[in-house]
Design a protein that fits this description.
- The complex is a heterodimer of chains A (280) and B (477).
- Chain A is built from nine helices and 16 strands.
- Chain A has helices at 22-27, 68-74, 110-122, 142-147, 168-176, 190-202, 236-239, 250-257, 261-274; strands at residues 2-11, 14-20, 33-37, 45-53, 58-64, 81-82, 84-89, 100-106, 126-133, 151-156, 163-164, 183-187, 207-210, 226-229, 232-235, 242-244.
- Chain B contains 18 helices and 16 strands.
- In chain B, the strands form four sheets. A five-stranded parallel β-sheet of chain B has the order 3-2-1-4-16.
- In chain B, strand 11 (363-376) and strand 12 (382-386) form a beta hairpin.
- In chain B, helix 4 packs antiparallel against helix 5 (75-85), helix 9 (153-164) runs parallel beside helix 18 (453-476) and helix 13 packs across helix 14.
- The chains are: A alpha/beta (280), B alpha/beta (477).
- Chain A binds chain B through residues 23-24, 27, 37, 41-44, 68-69, 83-89, 216-217, 219-224, 226-228, 233, 235, 238, 249, 252, 255-256, 258-261, 263-264, 267, 270, and chain B through 174-176, 184, 212-215, 218-220, 238-242, 244, 246, 250-251, 253-254, 256-257, 259-260, 263-264, 267-269, 274, 276-278, 358, 360-361, 408-410.
Chain lengths: 280, 477
């Protein structure tokens, strides 16, 4: 069992938890993920690591309540435990030899983008962070990004905070003005990453994306997390989750992510009923 | 006076659930012999002095000896004979391909059916589980620690043998539950999970620790295991990434690897009434492949409510590698075998006028080409050759690819000096399971690629013996 030692509600649908998992904390690197099961009957879900404290043996996860499992998890409190927590899985984000990087985060993807920005900033890389949200109420980790970036922009779709528009707007402005990046690292919804890659391509800047497909075991056994990258079948759990954005077939990944949409909706509604909560 | 053998030509049939009933439930299909049937079957054994059957067994169970004990109604004695050689009798009695091993060598098979050795093994093992209170005895602790990676058949066997010799064994399991392929791969209707749990419980009673949720190569590396004081390591990490055919359409929704489909159903219990892990149920299903895993996937799909299930296999019935009993069961249950056919494309739905159509990207069918058998290949199996222009389509909603796996890459990636072959399998000395790293042994699918439970068990035994010899020598030095 893995104890929840800290819990913070970051916005109405996003929760942060610090989990006691010393073996995972010892090895975790930005870009890697864990698989958890909330209880003995639960499903296995992957969550990318949002932070870690090796000395205290803690791993931070930040998750959006999008389905039954995350709903149930969000009702767990400090002092309670979750059944299974395994990792760190996947390959860490490559950060070596990068002098200037633009980190683009979208929505809850910022939770994963943040440790990458922090690691880059701490190693002396010039970090430009662009984070985007649908509206002001959904903003997370703004102060944390600010403290770990040389340049920083917050975007909202509706203009309720920061600049209005999507993350590609300031990215394109920077690139058009001649700003040089060794690499763009984009983490967020598939559609956002797809458009960031298109922008990056226009200016010929390498772009890494973090993929989050449906997974079960997460250890290279089931093959459920497969993606087409550069025309070849790749497995996000052992080959990723980071991939060269130029090569990823995003349209296929979007279709695959919707494979169980009806089931998930139904399970979520049921979980919400269990907690007497209205589904928004 | 010597007993007169039962000269009946046929084996006593295995009592089974009716095919029409069992096609809709996940309860075990084969129900097992009762005492009278077991006794009658045991009497068919001629007790050959040279034990040809035992030579067909990968772990050399002294088969005539255990069958003699059945004849003498000493069922626990029979169990002990089997347990001398096999760590998982209740499992092997159910899943071993006896017809190509022990029973293939049985003298009775020359003129009729061989003795039902597998059925007798299962009877004895089940009798033991139901009646015996005896615990396996272990030698005094010798103070040495061995790490076993993976809790599948090779890992469980290796751990059991070493614990008996007095080693402190810890099994590291990546998943949340112990048993490896016995829990995620083989379905309940063929191997009830309660039996696997009992075997695991038995190991724990022998003092073996099982650490779930630890991925060796990620959470802990092999080098760190030695740093933590382990004296030797056995790698039984099992089958890895599933193979796909590389044909168009394999990314459509509704295309599974058999590993994924079976893991969802077996490990994650997608077959229960209100599952938490989804699986595509119902409709028409095509399973590509002809091994035991393909049969398991097909029969699982049927039980999940498929209206029609096809097995698509590129060779003929003769070359089908699955156990005979599974093929027979599958046919009885109404699974249709499309033999000498090979998929060339998986077809999917695409509404060009509406990109948001929720059916976009879902499987609608599979296009196959007819095959004929040509010249034998290097393994002596006749090579299937495409019949030009014979393509045809079958309408299906789900396609399950069951064409093998390649060994798990995680340990290889993080263990320096561990040599692997071009397929990613760990290279070992066959007689010992010794790898290129000192103190590291390996066996099972991690070495051979997809094979059988019994061959993995055999490799676990070999590894345990070799580790024992290695550590005994080390102590003397």
């Amino acid at each position: 069992m893995f104890k929840i030692v800290n819990k913070k509600v970051l916005n109405p649908t996003v929760v942060l938890m610090d989990i006691e998992a010393p073996l995972v904390a010892r090895k975790a690197e930005p870009g890697q993920f864990i698989i958890l099961r909330v209880d003995s009957e639960g499903e296995r879900i992957p969550l990318t690591i949002a932070g870690f404290d090796r000395e205290k043996g803690l791993v931070t996860i930040i998750f959006q309540i999008v389905g039954a499992t995350t709903e149930i998890l969000s009702h767990k409190n400090v002092g309670e435990s979750i059944q299974d927590f395994v990792g760190p899985l996947g390959v860490a984000t490559e950060t070596e030899n990068l002098k200037s990087v633009c980190v683009v985060g979208g929505g809850v993807g910022c939770a994963i983008a943040f440790p990458v920005a922090k690691k880059l900033f701490e190693q002396g890389t010039e970090v430009t962070s662009i984070i985007g949200f649908r509206n002001k109420d959904l903003i997370i980790l703004e102060d944390e990004f600010k403290a770990n970036s040389s340049e920083f922009v917050t975007m909202t779709d509706d203009g309720s905070y920061g600049r209005q528009g999507n993350v590609c707007v300031p990215l394109e402005e920077l690139l058009a003005s001649g700003k040089h990046f060794d690499r763009i690292i984009a983490i967020g919804p598939l559609i956002m990453m797809k458009f960031v890659v298109q922008t990056a391509k226009k200016y010929n800047v390498p772009c890494t994306v973090s993929m989050n497909p449906i997974m079960i075991d997460g250890t290279g056994m089931c093959g459920g997390c497969r993606l087409t990258v550069g025309g070849k079948t790749k497995f996000a759990c052992v080959d990723g989750p980071d991939f060269d954005g130029y090569e990823v077939d995003f349209d296929e990944a979007m279709e695959r992510s919707g494979m169980y949409r009806d089931f998930e909706k139904h399970a979520y509604d049921k979980a919400c009923n269990l907690f007497n909560k209205e589904v928004k | 006076m010597p007993e007169i053998p039962n000269m009946k030509m046929e084996k006593n049939p295995m009592p089974s659930q009716d095919a029409k009933v069992r096609a809709h439930n996940f309860d075990e299909v084969a129900l097992g012999y009762d005492e009278a049937t077991a006794l009658d079957e045991a009497k068919r054994c001629l007790n050959c002095v040279n034990m040809p059957c035992a030579h067909g067994c990968p772990v050399r169970i002294r088969i005539p000896e255990f069958i003699s004990k059945i004849k003498a109604l000493d069922f626990e004695g029979a169990y002990q004979v089997i347990a001398d050689s096999s760590s998982l009798p209740a499992v092997c009695g159910r899943v071993c391909p006896q017809e190509s091993q022990c029973e293939a060598k049985c003298v009775r098979g020359i003129k009729g059916e061989p003795v039902g050795i597998g059925r007798l093994e299962r009877f004895v093992a089940d009798w033991h589980l139901a009646h015996s209170t005896e615990h396996t005895t272990c030698a005094e602790p010798n103070g040495m620690k061995v790490a076993v990676i993976g809790s599948g058949p090779s890992g469980l066997t290796c751990a059991g043998d070493l614990a008996k010799k007095g080693y402190k064994v810890t099994i590291f399991e990546a998943l949340h539950r112990a048993g490896g392929v016995l829990v995620y791969g083989i379905p309940e209707f063929r191997l009830p999970k309660a039996i696997v749990d009992k075997e695991v419980e038995n190991l724990k009673n022998m003092g073996v620790d099982i650490e779930t949720n630890v991925v060796i190569g990620k959470t802990i590396t092999i080098d760190e295991l030695f740093d933590d004081g382990y004296d030797a390591v056995f790698i039984g990490s099992g089958a890895g990434l599933p193979r796909f055919m590389g044909i168009p359409g394999e990314s459509f929704n509704g295309v599974y690897s058999a590993n994924e489909f079976l893991t969802r159903s077996n490990l994650m219990k997608s077959y229960v009434d209100c599952p938490v892990t989804p699986i595509m149920k119902g409709g028409k299903v095509a399973v590509v492949g002809g091994g035991n895993v393909a049969m398991d996937a097909a029969r699982t799909a049927l039980r999940l409510g498929a209206e029609k299930v096809y097995i698509i296999y590129r060779r003929s019935m003769e070359e089908l590698p699955a156990r005979h009993e599974e093929v027979e069961h599958a046919m009885e249950e109404g699974i249709e075998f499309k033999l000498l056919n090979n998929p060339v494309e998986i077809l999917g739905y695409r509404n060009e006028n509406d990109k948001r159509d929720p059916r976009n990207g879902f499987v609608t069918g599979i296009k196959c080409i007819k095959m004929e058998l040509g010249e034998p290949d290097e393994n002596g199996r006749r090579r299937p050759v495409e019949l030009a222009g014979s393509e045809f389509e079958i309408a299906v909603d789900t396609v399950i690819m069951s064409i093998g796996t390649s060994p798990n890459p995680l340990i290889k990636q993080t263990t320096e000096g561990l040599d692997t072959n071009s397929h990613g399998g760990i290279i070992v000395e066959e007689a010992t399971g010794k790898t290129s790293r000192d103190g590291v042994y390996a066996g099972g699918d991690a070495v051979t690629g997809a094979a059988t439970v019994i061959s993995a068990m055999g490799a676990g035994k070999v590894g345990a013996q070799a580790i024992h010899e290695y550590l005994s020598l080390k102590v003397k030095k």
